[in-house]
Amino acid sequence: MSADALLPLLKSTFGFDHFRGRQSDVVDRVMARERTLAVMPTGAGKSLTYQLPAVALDGCVVVVSPLIALMHDQLRGARAAGIRAASLTSVDADGAETRQRYRDGELDLLYVAPERATGEGFRALLEAKTPALFAIDEAHCVSEWGHDFRPDYRLLRPLLDAFPAVPRLALTATADKHTREDILFQLGISDDGLILAGFDRPNIRYAIRPRVTVARQLVEFIAANPGPGIVYCPTRSGTERLAEQLAKATGRRVAAYHAGLDAEVRSHVQHDFVASEDGIVTATVAFGMGIDKPDVRFVAHAALPKSIESYYQETGRGGGGGGAAGGGGGGGGGGAGPGAGAVWQAASASTRVDRTRVRGR
After folding, report:
1. Could you report the per-residue pLDDT of 120-133, keeping only the tens digit for each?
2. Do residues 299 and 317 lie in contact, with contact meaning Cβ atoms separated by under 8 Å?
3. Fold of 205-347
4. What CATH number has the domain spanning 4-196?
């Protein structure tokens, strides 16, 4: 069955009349039971390329995902579309029930962390009922070349190879040539299985400002850029300090997010941000992976990220719906303007910044 044949199901399940970008190419390969690595920009609809087949295929799609918050966020979206979905994580109290639902064929999607996916108990579950597809989300985590390497991702290959007839789909928004080659090798995908959708996000505008007084510069920027946004900070203490400063100066709701917070607090912050129309989160890199919020209007970095890949991944969380996205930081900075998004980067005071780089429609 081709992607075009699934257009009525695409409409009835997700409300879309047509595919975007390379989505149809990826779905075609999945439905043909091919092994695929899809490199698609943040906001390009990667999750749809396995969620739609999950509804169309006979059997359950197993999705390996690196973060519990990410899984639960995607779980809510899938259930909202009427997809029978569940997760197996350390915080899910209904694990036994979920396993039984899987055995009984009552699930379309099953999300699982790599640590659990590589255990003998999980393999035994899949041996009882073979999955329809393996989807490996945030696949750059499998590569030491990637910006967010996770050793447990390296242990997935034996599980995948135990079910050689089950197609596998690896997905990422950020992978340079070395990382792509490593992902293909580590997950047993041939070179002709690569679908590269490109990295350009024409609705995002990038700007760099010399860093003077970051908090004050961010306040000025946020005042000029209404709507929800993310401010990335290099330290946990920095997120909390900046959240307090921005909330006091702007009168807007600002929350800090970092790995040192209790899991329940992090979940609450993420849920509130996704539901908000003008909320701001000051966060470490622990926040944002896979966040399903199409109206993020700005992303700011109060300091340089650790790599250009990290920068691309994090800034890509703005403008996911194709509209304006902006970022806050030094020197004030104006609004993004209609049909454009802006991501601001604070350069150190000693860094020479000669120009602002603008990319928009």
Report:
1. 999 999 999 999 99
2. yes
3. Rossmann fold (3.40.50)
4. 3.40.50.300
